[in-house]
TrEMBL record:
Annotated family: Belongs to the sulfatase family.
Entry's Gene Ontology molecular function annotations: arylsulfatase activity; metal ion binding
EC numbers: 3.1.6.1
Protein name: Arylsulfatase
Length: 501
């Protein structure tokens, strides 16, 4: 049907009026490219999320005592309306290496951020840089930790495709942030005027989790009529374990108990698994409070997407850089291959394309994020990534992705200097098995189905000979393809040769 000039102008007038009254609805019809919002936390134990507890036995879901848990309805809702991964691993369960792999799709030794505070190479192309080339408005708020030792170091000069990085800071787990005429800064100061981790005078406006969520909302609002990619990197629930009211006292009356794995014998443990002094009930109550504050802010961000009629066309990702043992195996923090350290939450929701209520058990890691999410968005990658495209698992169109991932410690600093042998481990994981090699120790093989507590080493068991052999072959192939120097360590090389013989 042809339109005469008068009819055309009339329809154009209606469109203009609609644009003024509801700009998001008009432009969303034109902009068919999906948006991307990544909510990224720091040092997050997956058992604190209700959607993960649903996938576990009672014993595994409530390791800190009977029914001792924090409710996370907003993150759970993302899982219910999207897909949850039960075997998503930090490529290296420490901040900087994991983050480098997540944004680049490359293994730490190839970025070359193999431990904390190393600058990522200038030539790394992140998913944001790729999306920027395809017309996306991009931005980042929160902890970055890929530009060396600067602390806090606001708005690093090297943006890596995150064009609006005003609220990106390089390092620190600051509790209070504020805007000033000179730009953002840490609001808490010590008696010398230097930034501090104090949580005194915290409010829903200046507490870091709230502040960063508000910046994500501001970015989304400003760019709602164009395709956007924004990553908000919340530095909680990493220590120090402190949080603003009312979250600080919300869980103080729970009957926290030491995890059963903390009571195991220290005899025969590998160097990377030695027992230490675990966190106490007061620290766990604050940790739960930080998680609850995060969940409430996830709800706030998702509600804003709904308000702007953007949720259906926005890929929302919730994940973390690594876990926190929180007393499991009588240890805190991260850096080791135990599940609570190396396994991280990964939830992704996009009603248009990702299966609702889906649970993926295949093992994958941070390097797989970039090729997977860009494939979901129909955006070609640079071709430099090490990770694999798992998008078919999320759409239900292709289940051929292999159930396997590779993880490593931080021992070889920059891939050249020899680090601590206890941190020089590396290994291969599937949804059931985990095989770990380290220079000081005999190899460990975990069967996560038979022994979810990770207390038993099955490596020498005759029944596991074929499993050991196949996993060792996979690890050798990975190391050769992706230049992992761990394969050249004498003791590791010897054990691998014996395993495949």
């Amino acid at each position: 049907m042809r339109l005469d000039r008068r009819s055309f102008l009339k329809l154009s007038g209606f469109a203009a009026a609609a644009a003024l009254s509801s700009p998001s609805s008009v432009f969303s019809a034109v902009n068919t490219k999906p948006n991307l919002l990544i909510i990224h936390t720091d040092e997050h134990n997956f058992r604190t999320l209700g959607c993960y507890r649903k996938t576990l036995s009672q014993k595994q879901a409530f390791v800190w005592g009977k029914n001792v848990a924090v409710e996370t309805p907003h993150i759970d809702s993302l899982a219910e309306n999207g897909t949850l991964c039960t075997s998503f691993y930090a490529t290296t369960p420490v901040c900087s290496p994991s983050r480098s792999s997540f944004v680049s799709g490359r293994y730490p030794q190839n970025t070359p951020v193999v431990t904390n505070n190393i600058r990522m190479n200038d030539d790394i192309e992140t998913f944001a840089a790729t999306l920027q080339k395809h017309g996306y408005k991009t931005g980042y708020a929160g902890k970055w930790h890929l530009d060396g030792f600067g602390k806090p170091q606001w708005g690093p000069e090297r943006e890596f495709g995150f064009a609006d990085n005003r609220y990106m800071f390089n390092r620190g787990h600051w509790k209070l942030l504020e805007d000033t005429p000179e730009g953002p800064r840490v609001a808490a100061r010590n008696n010398k005027g230097r930034p501090s981790y104090s949580v005194a005078n915290a409010t829903p406006e200046n507490f870091t989790t709230d502040f960063l969520a508000d910046k994500a909302i501001e970015f989304v609002t400003a760019n709602r009529n164009e395709p956007f990619c924004y990553m908000v990197s919340i530095p909680d629930p990493h220590g120090p374990n402190s949080v603003r009211p009312p979250y600080e006292t919300m869980y103080q009356d729970l009957d926290f108990q030491p995890p059963e794995t903390s009571k195991k014998s220290a005899e025969g443990l590998p160097s990377w698994g030695k027992k230490a002094r675990p966190i106490g009930p007061r620290g766990m109550a604050k940790y739960f409070g930080m998680v609850k504050c995060i969940d409430d802010n996830v709800g706030k961000m998702v509600d804003h997407l709904k308000k702007l009629d953007l949720l259906d066309n926005t890929i929302v990702v919730f994940t973390s850089d690594h876990g926190d043992l929180c007393g499991e195996h009588s240890r805190n923090n991260k850096g080791v291959p135990y599940e609570a350290s190396a396994k991280i939450p990964f939830v992704i929701s996009w009603p248009k394309k990702i299966k609702k209520g889906n649970v993926i058990n295949h093992a994958m890691s941070c390097v797989d994020f970039l090729p997977t999410v860009l494939s979901l968005m129909d955006v070609p990658t640079s071709g430099k990534e090490d990770g694999r495209d798992a998008s078919g698992l999320f759409t239900g169109t292709d289940g051929s992705y292999k159930d396997i991932a590779f993880i490593r410690g931080t021992g070889d600093r920059n891939g050249t200097e020899k680090g601590d042998d206890k941190d020089n481990w590396f290994g291969v994981v599937t949804s059931r098995y985990k095989l770990i090699y380290a220079p000081e120790d005999k190899p460990w093989l975990f069967d996560l189905k038979k022994d979810p507590d990770e207390l038993v080493n099955f490596y020498e068991e005759p029944a596991y000979k074929d499993t050991r052999k196949e996993l060792a072959k996979e690890l050798i192939a990975y190391a050769k393809k992706h230049n992992d120097p761990r394969i050249t360590v004498a003791t590791t090389k010897k054990y691998l040769a014996e395993a495949i013989a």
